[in-house]
Amino acid sequence: MKDNNKIKVINKKVDIKKSIEEIETGTFYINKWRKYFKLTPYKIAILATVLALNIVLSAFSAFALTPLVIGGFLRVEISFLTYIIAWKLVNGFYSLLLVIPATWLRYVGVDPNAEPIGLLTMNLSDLFALSFFILVSNLLNMKKEHTGKMKIYIKYIFAAVVVSISTGFFNILINFTFILDMYSEYMGVEAIKALKTYSFASVLIFFNFIKYVTNFWLFLTFYETINIIYKKSIFS
Prior knowledge:
- By secondary structure, this protein is an all-alpha fold.
- It has two domains: 1-38; 39-235, Arp2/3 complex 21 kDa subunit ARPC3, CATH 1.10.1760.
- Helix content is 77%, strand content 0%.
- The chain is built from nine helices and no strands.
- The longest helix has 39 residues, at 149-187.
- The two termini are 16 Å apart.
- Keywords: Membrane, Transmembrane, Transmembrane helix.
- The chain crosses the membrane at residues 44-68, 80-105, 117-140, 152-180, 200-223.
């Protein structure tokens, strides 16, 4: 164990020395972005595993959580958890790319209730929530090593609340501007447009708060395990 720690310290010193040399030669940021976007076997394996987990959690949400709908048709999904895992283990760019195929794969039998307007809404909502979370995580430097669990947990809880509430308002915006109109045309029910009310807006805020806070809570539940994998990936 001590030998492993010594190796890690030596590797860190080598990386620091290499970074200083790169800064002096003006190649530091170029190499940094190349490393960020480069698809290594590790990244591909993690993304494939996360996508498979997303399909499983989507199926669970479709079959087990459908009876617990809010407002008669808003179902809490726990698949957003996988995007946070992808952000932690890979990076923000590829976690965002994962949202689109993961959402629309519900059409291959994962979700028997899948329909285009609902999937479009989920896709836009999850993209906004994940993008906003990545922004907050960068501002709070949440991938940096912290000395205590409490400090990082407080940051995640703060991010979860801010992201959940903000995504609720984002959903009000897209529903009131075009989603409800699209639903009305798609289903041939003019009364759907009448949902543009304060009461429905409050339902959207409540629903999104429950959905995203639940996903962040699940992430924190498995945080220690995920963090071990993350640390191993750094020194691999």
